[in-house]
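Encode chain A's predicted structure.
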Amino acid sequence: MLLNSISEQNARGSFTFSGVATSQYDSAGLPIANTGFDFADFLLGAPQSSSIRFGNPDTYFRANAINAYVQDDWRISSGLSLNYGLRYEFQPPFREKYGRLANLDVAPGFTDVAAVLSGESGPYTGAFPAALIESDKNNFSPRIGAAWKPWQKRSTVVRAGYGMYYNGSVYNSAASRLAQQPPFSVTTTLVTGVDNLLTLANGFAASPDASILNTYAVARNYRVGYAQTWNLSVQHNLPASLVLSAAYLGTKGTRLDIQRSPTAPRPASPATTARSRTRWDSRMTAPRATPFTTLAKYGWCAASAAAWRATCIHLVKVHRQRLHLRRRRGGGRAV
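Encoded structure for chain A:
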């Protein structure tokens, strides 16, 4: 696969206004619920955070993908038939033609991080591949469908199916963001605090105490998320050319991506020093790094030091039901 692009993400920069500057605070210095207004913060020119990324606009991503499947139809009887198969998808992460990718090598316990370039070795986890992410090689997707007509002299038909689908396209956005990192581009994310009070005038100043300015990282053993879907429907023909159908559809997503910032401070009063705020996990200090977001091993994991390595699976289930009455008309039309 070839993916050549010329673009700059967030080259003009962006501000986030959350109502922090106009909130009321309790004795612990935490915002009181239902206070503060984001538009008021905007009118005051007091953003909670800012980010900017520009440079390295031309990128040349390369990857070799393999997709294969087997499928069969089995008519068990005059009223029952099966369709089943197995699909294999090998969609490796993209590498950049000229090696212009940058990631972070994370120390145990998130005590520190180190920038690592394509094909280099990190001080904590060893040699990285050219894509800076290990390939996910076990993405097998079974599919099965069935159609059953319980009574030969009646029009009732029951259908059911199941399938699994992987989200290999996640590597597209990951590669684009890894290419837009130092030293190939300028990228900065800042959070307001008394030691670095953000305004519209100084919102894109360099982080004063960070030597690692990367704002994005992907765990080298990241695994692709997938969705499982299953459905059941019953259809029956009624008089006057009417067709009644009842259907159910279920979907379950696993390893879904949720954005987390493991080095970002916990939300608090802007009157609290950013470096002294309580973090989500006190072990996640990474003192030399500016705040960054991580695409962890099993999706965007919870912001804890163990999340980078642990089996962190996010599940989402969706259930839908539908009752449908349709009338057939001449010429293949239906209402």
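Residues 266-284, 298-313 have pLDDT under 50 and may be disordered.
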